[in-house]
User: Fold DUF1013 domain-containing protein from Litorisediminicola beolgyonensis.
Amino acid sequence: MAKLLHPKATAVWLVDNTTLTFKQIADFTEMHELEVQGIADGDVAAGVKGFDPVANNQLEQGEIDKGEKDVLYKLKLKFNPAARDEEKRRGPRYTPLSKRQDRPAAILWLVKFHPELSDGQIGKLVGTTKPTIQAIRERTHWNIANIQPIDPVALGLCKQSELDAAVAKASKKSDAVMNDDERRKLVSTEQSLGMDPEPRLPSAIEGLETFSLSDPRDDSDDEDPRDDKNYADADSFFNLPEGDDDEDDDSDDPRR
Assistant:
């Protein structure tokens, strides 16, 4: 399907040169009706030069005439054979330099909240490579300790409709192989945005999650039988023998 060239500039031209409604212009240029109204009021697209869609082979004059006569008529973009299949992309999505540093956070979010997505789908959504995705999945990325999961839609790396379509496609493929427990773990975008952030351990103590100061051995095995005795009495504590010490000393004297 062909795409309209310079939609905002085309909207400026249609506002200035036709009597089409804001709704008709918005539908044709794929803009919001209030944005078209802002163009008419001079609040939006100030200084933008109008782009004539008729002279540039984007729209037939007959379409404009039909739209001016019928406010419910939707303008049709002129077919251009050269623009066939222009929406199909090959390779990963191009990501601007200003947003490339946000891709690891988006990948971690997709891996965490949508594990059903394949590496290829994630790569097309955020414009990255499979080695980077694999490194984040296995937590071997060089900056994994500082990466926080962030929704790629909120970062502007993809559209919500593209994410929903990828999740729906992946869910259909995985329904046959996923069990009930795995399927329950899948959450929607709205639910994941309301979740608390995952607590992270400082890198200095990673691997010590199971460390404990308590003795792992059973206390009953090494129980001291003397624990129940009362050692308040000094005689019982030292186990002194019963009897008179003087008599023992006299009996041992050889002079007797």
The chain has a mean pLDDT of 75. Residues 97-193 form one domain.
